[in-house]
Design goal:
It is built from 28 helices and no strands. It is mainly alpha-helical. Among the domains are: 111 residues, Tetratricopeptide repeat domain (Serine Threonine Protein Phosphatase 5, Tetratricopeptide repeat), CATH 1.25.40.10; 78 residues, Orthogonal Bundle (Helix Hairpins); 58 residues, no CATH class. The longest helix has 25 residues. The radius of gyration is 44 Å and the shape is elongated.
Length: 531
């Protein structure tokens, strides 16, 4: 402690000595306290402030260090005879503090005041910092935002301990974040700048750009208007305000047209909105999604898929678009691709039970697509009625009958397929099961067993010239078990074996309690079945 009876200069020197000891031991907080007492004891002495500035620098309080150095320089210049040697040291210290704060231009200007000039090593950091930021500006202007961010990071590494990067650097980095779609980081930069200064027009525009890129045009417009209130000449704010308002207007008009069922108008409005700003990924992804929905309603499935692809390019995690694309692919019967899209959507949103239900339906359609298409085999549509199905069957059975095509080795399979198709589609219950895919879910009940008991043999007799009850020779093998290539099908395993001669027709169902002793089923002439 200094003696109260001592003169101010003497007590100040005592405090300075105490501060120096604390400084040497690394106790910078205590050193600052001692230097402060020295300053209070002799405020006109620049040395005490210079010493305190060095202690502030050690704990990263560069703004306070700069204040002390600036005052120390002023006091030294007022008394050059007494403190002239302190001027050069103080200028060098000021330049280093300015460099640590990121104010490299000011630092270079300060170094230029020194005579003789400082060493290259003393100025190196300031010049490297200036080069990094110049490169960042050039890269950002050229659209190379990743390289710009890299350059800014290089400059930030040269800053002093715990120094917040200069506002200009943060704004530039925020712009790069927006243009590289790192909107969360950009928003953080903007919010932090606005906490420091709510009237920062550039920070307001940055925040508006984030909202604009996210598709929130109304909130974006609010920020652009506030920026213009602060700075009416802010060109970018004015341009973006106009674009955000126009986008929102056309999008809403398109939505209104869609709701009232005016699909063509909705399509035109969405297309017009998409032409306003190609860089607005947030809004454009939604516009592509909306236009895809319109194209789905217009049965323009290929166009819908193109719009979905465009939306997904802008926002790969847009699950609604994935769903729309999958549905469009389903309409085009591209079920394998539809399944892939549903799976990708579920990866993004595993909790969506509706997506899982649609995935199961698509997977079922894949199975259905891989089995025989009975409608195509008969050449009828899925809405064909019983008469159309019977007419198609008669025609094709005549065309593909093996006896009519002795030189065509494929006629056997074609004739068989026609019979299978008719067996299923002529029976309302089997047809319903086939259409729904229930048969694929229950492996114990599959179709394709051949022309069974449901096909009226009289149809075949009339088709091939048969008159009464006699069975034409070409059918004897099929239903009697010999002579024809169809023996195995109708006289063997299926009709004479397990299916028609075993459990189903020879067992409990047809040979047991249900048909035993009741004769032949109605409509089937004698000689076709033995029970």
């Amino acid at each position: 402690m200094a003696d109260a009876s001592q003169a101010p200069g003497e007590s100040a020197e005592v405090y300075k000595s105490q501060g120096n000891e604390f400084y040497k031991s690394g106790s910078y907080g205590k050193a600052i306290d001692s230097y402060t007492k020295a300053v209070e004891a002799d405020p006109e002495n620049p040395i005490y402030r210079g010493n305190r500035s060095m202690a502030y620098m050690q704990i990263g309080v560069y703004e306070r260090a700069l204040e002390d150095c600036s005052k120390s320089l002023e006091l030294s210049q007022q008394k050059p005879d007494e403190f002239g040697s302190n001027i050069q040291k103080t200028l060098l210290r000021i330049g280093k503090i300015q460099t640590a704060l990121g104010n490299y231009d000011e630092a270079i200007s300060t170094f230029a005041q020194m005579s003789p000039p400082p060493s290259a090593g003393d100025m190196q950091v300031a010049y490297e910092m200036r080069q990094y930021i110049a490169q960042a500006d050039a890269m950002a202007a050229g659209g190379n935002v990743k390289l710009a961010q890299y350059a800014i990071s290089g400059a930030e590494k040269l800053l002093g301990l715990n120094v917040t990067p200069p506002r200009k650097w943060r704004l530039l980095k925020g712009k790069c974040y927006v243009e590289s779609d790192d909107l969360d980081q950009a928003a953080t930069v903007a919010v932090n700048l606005l906490r420091e200064d709510k009237q920062d027009s550039d920070a307001l525009v940055l925040r508006g750009r984030v909202l604009y890129a996210q598709g929130d045009n109304a909130k974006a417009a609010t920020h652009f208007m506030e920026a213009l209130r602060v700075d009416p000449d802010h060109k970018l704010a004015r341009e973006l305000l106009k674009a955000s308002r126009e986008l929102e207007k056309k999008k809403n008009l398109g939505n209104d047209a869609f709701k009232r069922g005016d699909l063509q108008t909705a399509l035109e409005l969405y297309s017009g909105a998409l032409s306003i700003d190609n860089c607005n990924k947030g809004t454009n992804s939604k516009l592509y999604s909306n236009r895809a929905t319109v194209n789905m309603r217009l049965n323009r499935f290929e166009d819908a898929i193109e719009d979905c692809d465009a939306a997904l390019e802008l926002d790969p995690d847009f699950t609604k678009v994935r769903r729309t694309k999958a549905r469009a692919l389903g309409q085009l019967e591209k079920w394998d691709e539809a399944v892939q899209e549903f799976q990708k959507a579920i990866e993004v949103d595993p909790s969506d039970s509706n997506l899982r239900a649609e995935l199961r339906e698509a997977e079922l359609e894949v199975k259905k697509a891989k089995r025989k298409d009975y409608y195509k085999i008969l050449g009828v549509t899925k809405s064909a009625d019983e008469t159309e199905i019977k007419r198609a069957y008669r025609k094709l059975a005549l065309i593909h009958h093996p006896d009519k095509n002795p030189d065509d080795p494929t006629s056997h399979e074609k004739f068989k397929d026609v019979g299978e198709a008719y067996e299923v589609l002529s029976d309302s219950q089997k047809r319903a099961r086939y259409d729904s895919g229930v048969d694929l879910q229950d492996s114990s009940d599959m179709y394709g067993g051949g022309m069974g008991a449901e096909i009226d043999p009289s149809v075949l007799f009339q088709m091939f010239g048969g008159g009464g009850g006699a069975v034409p020779h070409e059918f004897m093998g099929q239903f009697g078990g010999g002579g024809s290539p169809f023996g195995a099908q109708f006289g063997g395993a299926q009709f004479g074996g397990a299916q028609f001669g075993g459990a189903q027709f020879g067992g409990a169902q047809f040979g047991g309690s249900q048909f035993r002793g009741q004769g032949r089923p109605r409509g089937h002439p004698s000689g076709f079945y033995s029970y």
